[in-house]
Amino acid sequence: MSYHVDHFFAAVSVLAGHGHIKQRLMKAYEDHLIEINEDELPIAAKQAFADLKHQMYRVTPLKGESPISASVRKMSVREASECAASVVAVYGEIVQYSDGAQHTLPLDRQDKVGVPPFLVKSN
Asked: How many other C-beta atoms lie within 10 A of the C-beta of residue 74?
């Protein structure tokens, strides 16, 4: 399951990056999610990922185009945003079920605890 968590984390990282949502969605799916089989995911995530996969392969590509780029090209910005939200939701589900235990999200954080100086009220 760690394999899937890593790939979904990478996809979510791409989705959170710069660029148009359609470009980010295509890159996230093609680079990190294309080889994932929904049958390998937890039950709670299977249908959502199967639906996403269907959305990513719903359009017949033109000559020299991939099915994913054709499908994303035909999506509205709202549909692309909904697909991106599905990726995040599936990631949340698989993180909960990875290795049979609930894990925290792999966030890059420092071990500093305290209030940032700009939030401290001065007298």
From this structure: 11
